[in-house]
Amino acid sequence: MKYREMGRGGPKVSAIGIGAMSFAEFYGPTTDENSLAILDAALELGVTHIDTSNIYGMGRSEKAIGRFLADRPGARARFHIATKAGITRDADGRRYFDNSLQHLESELDKSLTRMGIDHVDLFYIHRRDPDMPIEEATGNLARLVEKGKTRAIGFSEIAPSSLRRAAAVHPVAAVQSEYSLSTRSPELGLVQSCAELGTALVAFSPVGRSLLTDHPLDPAIIPSLSFLKVNPRFMEPNLSANLKITDRFRALAAEMGEPAAALAIAWLLHRGDHVIPIPGTRSVAHFRELVRGTELSLSPQDMARIEAVLPVGWAHGDRYSTDQWVGPERYC
Questions:
Q1: Is the CB of residue 111 less than 8 Å from the CB of residue 58?
Q2: Is residue 185 packed enough to be buried (19+ CB in 10 Å), middle (13-18) or exposed (0-12)?
Q3: Residues whose CB is less than 8 angstroms from the CB of residue 15 and which lie 6 or more positions away in sequence, other chains included
């Protein structure tokens, strides 16, 4: 396994991590036993970073991780664990963002209890509260470092300008953002700013929510998935167009003798030494394909062939619906 720094001077973690949203049935039914099997495979393959959140399955993902750690003495020392907080709901069920120290610490304490650990290695603000200066939010995260509840801090889906303001207050180990062959907007400033500031770019959905794999999600199940059924890229006619375009990528991967998912991960790893993909999966076999991407060395010619079949802007539909765009910072 190859390793990368989680922030300048930070701990070395595997070049690929586990996006544990899939432990909470975000992309379809699963079992805790399935999640534990993936974590066992991670130990076997040298994957050390686990990325979860308090809201994935309303704690289900964290509870699965906690069960795994409790059943396998010594496993905690082998993993770099990250979680997030900052998304909540009011009494009427309306979603809003809370970056107050009281909320962040309370939610982190609950996460630690669910996972059965006394600290996390990285704690992100999941979504920025637009009414709080990011300097204040960063200070709240820094207090949790001082208290020993997290070793490092990060943000999810923030703009490069926000990252610069936050980094002026406290080192920001990681920014999490969607980044893949199907979503390349981070290249318009975030990839560069992270590299300059020594911040890891933790790339979620690195295989395009299955579009960049050999077995994309069956269109028949998409109506049962609350996020994807209203996501523009997975609604018709966009879905059919995207599947047809990505057939070219699957054909190229087959020609190169590699799983499509592995090729997508390898392409992303070649975009910068500070990029750390965190794919999610419900399958050990697919997890092995994803990890295979860390073993591939792509030449400039290989990169050019990949981008010839999937040029910038190929995807039909926005990456989020109007409602899904509430929270992430737009910057381009």
A1: no
A2: middle
A3: 1, 2, 3, 4, 269, 276, 277, 294
8 Å CB contact between 53 and 84: yes
Q: What 3 state SS string does the chain have?
A: CCEEECCCCCCEEECCEEEHHHHHCCCCCCCHHHHHHHHHHHHHHCCCEEECCCCCCCCHHHHHHHHHHHHCCCCHHHCEEEEEECEEECCCCCEEECCCHHHHHHHHHHHHHHHCCCCECEEEECCCCCCCCHHHHHHHHHHHHHCCCECCEEEECCCHHHHHHHHCCCCCCEEEEECECCECHHHCCHHHHHHHHCCEEEEECCCHHHCCCCCCCCCCCHHHCCCHHHCHHHCCCHHHHHHHHHHHHHHHHHHHCCCHHHHHHHHHHCCCCCEEECCCCCCHHHHHHHHHHHHCCCCHHHHHHHHHHCCCCCCCCCCCCCCCCCCCCCCC
> Residue type at 79?
F
Taking the whole predicted model, whether its pTM rises above 0.85 is answered as yes
CA 87, CA 129: separation in Å to the nearest integer? 9
> Could you tell me the residue ranges of all domains in the chain?
3-208+268-296
What is the spatial distance between Cα 268 and Cα 64, in angstroms, rounded to a whole number?
Answer: 28
In CATH terms, is domain 3-208+268-296 a member of 3.20.20.100?
yes
Tens of pLDDT, residues 57-88: 889 999 999 999 999 989 999 999 999 999 99
**Active site (annotated) includes residue 56:** yes
Residue 30: the pLDDT is: 85
Catalytic pick among 27, 56, 124, 320: 56
Determine the distance from the C-alpha atom of residue 315 to the mean position of all C-alpha atoms in its chain, rounded to a whole number.
Answer: 20
Q: Strand pairing partners for 202?
A: 176, 276
pLDDT digits (tens, 9 = 90+) for 20-46: 998 987 787 888 899 999 999 999 999
